Amino acid sequence: MGQLSTIEKLGILADAAKYDASCASSGTAKKNSLGGPKGRGGIGSTEGMGICHAYAPDGRCISLLKILLTNHCVFDCHYCINRKSSNVRRARFSPQEVADLTIAFYRRNYIEGLFLSSGIVKSSNHTMEQLVETARILREEYDFRGYIHLKTIPEADPELVYQAGLYADRVSINVELPTDSGLTRLAPDKSARQIEGAMAKTKADIVEAKDAKKRFRHAPRFAPAGQSTQMIVGADGASDADIVGKASRLYDGFRLRRVYYSAFSPIPDASAVLPLKRPPLIREHRLYQSDWLMRFYGYQPGEVMQAAGDDGMLPLDIDPKLAWALKFRDSFPLDVNRASREQLLRVPGLGVTAVNRIIAARRHHSLRLDDVARLTQSIAKVRPFICTTDWRPTLLTDRADLRRLLAPKQEQLELFAA
Fold it and tell me: What average pLDDT does the chain have?
């Protein structure tokens, strides 16, 4: 390993990090490069919005330098490419090397921040110390003001996790799998109670830091962009209803900024307890849509679960909002000139922006179908579920083939099309 060049190690450890989806940067506190110790300007800045445009070895466009400190690991999670029994090429960075890489990439305008995770090497505490030291070098020695997301280790000493939150904009702890039984079977070294205990401690630290900031101007910040987590989809037998229920409990219990979903990907020399094929990627997409319904559209978890079939799985051919509307057709059609904002948000094809436009426009005049068409992206999906001054769907809402009419058309793409 000592003979590997920095570029070789970067290739190995950036590739090993691609399975972690939870690296968005929204919600971070605004910082800039002005001021700093002794009147010097700092390096880097962040805005209160998503960061984009960085590069991984396989060509993916991402926002952050997204790497592992090391892909050595003493754990043996069945689904992980970096588990101790896996026959993969290993590499390891020192905290100083990661800090130098981050600064070098930032100065070349490749990135605006760092997402850093790690396999567990030696012990959880030793690894957590290395992650914290990387962030400390960036913040204190380089005065780096860019975004830092640290993946923390629930088995580590709580004081080390707290130190990570003092340097990082966001921290995250992966719950790994939707069910406790799945975690016990596929990740025997991990404990669901320990993971949730660490998340609860981080939540309490975030709340305490915000309260302190209100009372003391120079109180230290702690993970201002909050905490997030990730669940692997399709590695165990958990249904979409199980996953939606778990996500809801995590949002309510730990005030998470995001729950990320990562479709299980078969790995070399996989354990016999894992499925042979990955789940369809569209399943991951449907779960993100259901997550959006709970966070921004006012749906309760039980309502999202109602969109699933008897097997607890969300339909793959239509989105969960349309699936719910088709199951509860007696809630429609809605008069766009009288319905509340909460009701309009349940109309398939109407997003938050379109609903806000409709509510603003109807203050001035009664809306016709053409008016709604100008305020939305596609009127075809909306028409069966609304009424206007000149339009009523009559029997359209109750048509037996309405699902077929509204489902996206399946198209076979050509590999060598011009």
Answer: 88
What's the topology of domain 6-236+251-261?
TIM Barrel (3.20.20)
Q: Kind of pairing, strands 54-55 and 61-62?
A: antiparallel
What one-character-per-residue DSSP string does 53-106 give?
-EE-TT--EESSEEEESB---S---TT-TTSTT------B--HHHHHHHHHHHH
Tokens of 47: 């805005």
In angstroms, rounded to a whole number, what is the distance separating the alpha carbons of residues 226 and 168?
10
Helix (H, G, I), strand (E, B) or coil at 397: helix
pLDDT in tens, 253-309: 999 999 999 999 887 777 778 888 889 999 999 999 999 999 999 999 999 999 999
Burial class (CB in 10 A: 0-12, 13-18, 19+), 185: middle
Tell me the domain boundaries of the chain: 6-236+251-261, 328-406
Categorise residue 35: left if φ over 0, alpha if ψ from -120 to 50, beta otherwise.
Answer: left
Three-point CA angle 150, 137, 202, nearest 5°: 30
Under 8 Å between Cβ of 301 and 248: yes
For domain 328-406, the CATH class is: mainly alpha
Amino acid at 353: T
Tokens of 227: 């905490």
Which of 354, 405, 346, 410 has the alpha carbon at shortest distance from 378?
A: 354
Sign of the CA dihedral with 57 first, then 62, 63, and 64 last = negative
Among candidate residues 270, 263, 163, the one with its CA nearest the CA of residue 223: 163
Helix residue ranges, H only, 362-394:
369-375, 379-382
Whole-model pTM: value is 0.86
